[in-house]
Design a protein that fits this description.
This protein is mainly alpha-helical. The chain is 80% helix and 0% strand. The chain contains 14 helices and no strands.
């Protein structure tokens, strides 16, 4: 057997492991999709269900080393592709036309989330990496924000997965709590929607909490939430600047720019000004893109979840969870007062 034959077999083996690894992440994502239809689990959603399944699989069967190349591809490349597609959900026109005050409040929410989280992390000696990810997820847009800022913070895959799992769980708990207390609140439907939109974690959590309030509540909630999503790229640029200055004394001080955020912006502009106004784009087509985004994001989270050790969660995540709980309660309370007195 000559060297060229050995090389060819190695390349073939690599491609097979790569393909099988990607397929494996989508299989778990598929299982997560059906688990999310079960009672209780339907509140957490497909993404959270899949990442929890991946974490459980890792604890029972260990990390599937033979599939590492494909799993890594899902957790990095497919994740970035999903974030790019996620941009199509952001209607820039709505924000620029009707949401200036929402943008200001959103900026305040993000600033509060980071400042309070990092202060509490210092106070409790909590893991700074996971806490920073949770701050981004709380202040901006959940898992998508965590995935976007992780490369800037140079976060380990297992920490990113832990952050996504925690933010999905807490967002679900808070959104269910919102629906339970909604009838008791001194808010109109629109005011309740604004409160949900400026305080809850994920877009899905906002929709879950606002839908029982009716169409007005849901519309205002999504507008308020999109105002925070709109700020994802500016926040990332600020974080790149801050982290670069922080590492100025290190040998490798440059922070790699997450270029997939450019794709996120481009897709936002395409979805706002091209698809529909110029190029025909039906509701079915929009739903198809949203479904592709969800499946890609779910498979990517599976790849991240397979890196998680429950031992790491026990030793690293308990204090960040406490920080997240305190910040989330404080954020809900402060935004409640803002909506009550400004709207």
């Amino acid at each position: 057997m000559n060297i060229n034959t050995i090389k060819h077999q190695f390349q073939l083996s690599y491609r097979m492991r790569w393909s099988a690894g990607i397929l494996f992440t989508f299989i778990i994502a598929f299982i997560g999709y059906y688990v999310a239809k079960l009672p209780v689990f339907q509140l957490t959603g497909q993404l959270a269900s899949a990442i929890f399944i991946a974490i459980i699989y890792r604890q029972i069967a260990g990390y599937p080393e033979m599939l590492r190349e494909g799993i890594t591809f899902s957790s990095k490349k497919i994740l970035r592709f999903a974030i790019i597609l996620y941009g199509i959900k952001l209607n820039v026109g709505f924000i620029l036309q009707d949401g200036f005050s929402i943008l200001l409040i959103g900026a305040g929410v993000i600033l509060f989330s980071f400042a309070a989280s990092m202060w509490l992390a210092k106070l409790f000696n909590a893991d700074r990496s996971i806490t920073a990810l949770l701050a981004a997820g709380t202040g901006i847009c959940g898992a998508a924000a965590i995935a976007a800022v992780a490369p800037i913070f140079r976060t380990k895959d297992e920490d990113t997965a832990i952050g996504v799992g925690i933010i999905a769980l807490f967002g679900t708990i808070f959104s269910v709590a919102y629906t339970l207390i909604r009838p008791l609140l001194p808010f109109s439907a629109a005011e309740y929607g604004v409160w949900a939109g400026i305080s809850l974690h994920e877009v899905a959590h906002v929709a879950l909490a606002a839908a029982p309030g009716g169409e007005d509540a849901l519309a205002m909630a999504l507008l308020a939430k999109l105002g925070r999503v709109f700020l994802l790229v500016p926040v990332c640029l600020i974080l790149i600047y801050v982290m670069t200055r922080k590492r100025k004394d290190e040998t490798h001080n440059a922070v790699s720019f997450p270029w997939f955020l450019v794709g996120f912006v481009v897709m936002s502009l395409v979805g706002t000004y091209l698809l529909g106004p110029i190029v025909p784009f039906s509701e079915n087509a929009v739903q198809t893109v949203n479904n592709i985004t969800t499946w890609c994001l779910t498979a990517a989270m599976v790849g991240l979840g397979l890196n998680v050790s429950l031992k790491d969660i026990k030793t690293k995540a308990l204090k960040p969870v406490l920080v997240l709980l305190l910040v989330s309660i404080s954020l809900s309370s402060l935004t409640f007062l803002i909506v009550k007195f400004l709207y």
